[in-house]
């Protein structure tokens, strides 16, 4: 029997809920208590601060409901600072057919303290999430093996999320900046590859976010959000 485990941690600052971090796992029953322990520790000792609130959700899952998806190919572009990184990201989005890529970059760098992602319609640049404060959280995904539970492996967890997300019919791209003040490497992903950019922000900056690029000609927003939130996906390398 397998279980999906979701962890989300937050902190109370001036009566406001500050997002700290989260994690998604799909694991065997025998690992359950161990994983719950480690994810709780991750929430308690996070680089964005120690959590006041940790939400853990455990669901039994059926193997026949899990789809397997191959991890996106990866490459890395080295840049000297975040300005160069953001302009590389903008050019990549343009090459993916986004008409006003600068708009996407401006929205991304002004995003802060969301626990999910923005979904942007690429035809009219309107946001498609019903809750614009939270955004849409991709859950129910993990690797088939070599799962990192103890400490966050930014690159691997982001590749897993991007692989699931870009496998949605109508998501044609993604751009991401970590909200971890020590982690400045971000990425742009397309249907074909996951492109790491070594600096999309400067060290010490707590801001971060994600934007999914949605093409309404390829699927409905309801199907897309349902897939992102609920479809069980195991990524293999
Ligand atoms: N679903 C949707 N959006 C999410 C999720 C999720 N499961 N988790 C985080 N986000 C959003 C949320 O707004 C966060 O503030 C933002 O993305 C950044 O999340 O190859 O660490 O977990 O080395 O801080 C990139 C790795 C790491 C690049 C990205 O993102 C590389 C990272 P974080
Ligand atoms: Mg983070």
Description:
- This protein has 237 residues and is of the alpha/beta class.
- It has helices at residues 32-44, 82-95, 101-109, 154-166, 221-230, and strands at 2-13, 16-28, 53-61, 66-70, 73-77, 118-121, 141-143, 171-177, 186-190, 193-197, 209-214, 232-236.
- A hairpin with a 2-residue loop joins strand 1 (2-13) and strand 2 (16-28).
- Helix 2 (82-95) packs across helix 3.
- The mean pLDDT is 96.
- The chain binds pimeloyl-AMP and magnesium ion (MG).
- Magnesium ion binds at residues 21, 178-180.
- Magnesium ion (MG) is lined by residues 21, 178-180.
- Would you tell me the structural class of the helices and strands? alpha/beta
What string gives the helices and strands in order?
EEHEEEHHEEHEEEEHE
Main sheet attributes: strand count, strand direction, barrel closure: 6 strands, mixed
Output the strand order for the largest sheet.
5-10-9-8-11-6
Gist?
This protein has helices at residues 32-44, 82-95, 101-109, 154-166, 221-230, and strands spanning 2-13, 16-28, 53-61, 66-70, 73-77, 118-121, 141-143, 171-177, 186-190, 193-197, 209-214, 232-236. With 237 residues, it is an alpha/beta fold.
Q: How are the SSEs placed, and which strands pair?
A:
Blueprint (H helix, E strand, L loop, with lengths): L1 E12 L2 E13 L3 H13 L8 E9 L4 E5 L2 E5 L4 H14 L5 H9 L8 E4 L19 E3 L10 H13 L4 E7 L8 E5 L2 E5 L11 E6 L6 H10 L1 E5 L1
Parallel strand pairs: 4-12, 5-10, 6-11, 7-12
Antiparallel strand pairs: 1-2, 1-3, 8-9, 8-11, 9-10
Helix pairs in contact: 2-3
The chain binds pimeloyl-AMP and magnesium ion.
């Amino acid at each position: 029997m397998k279980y999906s485990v979701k962890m989300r941690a937050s902190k109370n600052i001036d009566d406001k809920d500050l997002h700290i971090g989260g994690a998604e796992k799909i694991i065997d029953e025998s690992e359950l208590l161990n994983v719950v322990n480690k994810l709780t520790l991750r929430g308690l000792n996070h680089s964005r601060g120690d959590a006041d609130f940790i939400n853990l959700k455990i669901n039994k899952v059926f193997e026949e409901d899990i789809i397997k998806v191959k991890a996106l190919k990866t490459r890395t572009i080295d840049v000297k600072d975040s300005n160069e990184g953001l302009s590389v990201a903008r050019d990549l989005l343009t090459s993916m057919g986004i008409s006003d890529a600068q708009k996407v970059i401006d929205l991304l760098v002004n995003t802060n303290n969301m626990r999910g992602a923005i979904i942007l319609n690429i035809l009219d640049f309107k946001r498609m999430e019903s809750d614009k404060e939270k955004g849409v959280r991709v859950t129910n995904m993990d690797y088939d093996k070599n799962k990192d539970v103890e400490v966050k492996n930014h690159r691997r967890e982001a590749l897993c999320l991007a692989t699931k997300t870009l496998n949605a019919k109508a998501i044609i791209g993604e751009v991401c900046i970590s909200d971890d003040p020590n982690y400045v490497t971000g990425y742009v992903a397309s249907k074909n590859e996951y492109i790491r950019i070594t600096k999309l922000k400067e060290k010490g900056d707590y801001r971060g976010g994600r934007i999914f690029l949605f093409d309404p000609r390829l699927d409905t927003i309801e199907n897309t959000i349902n897939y992102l939130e609920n479809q069980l996906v195991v990524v293999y390398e």
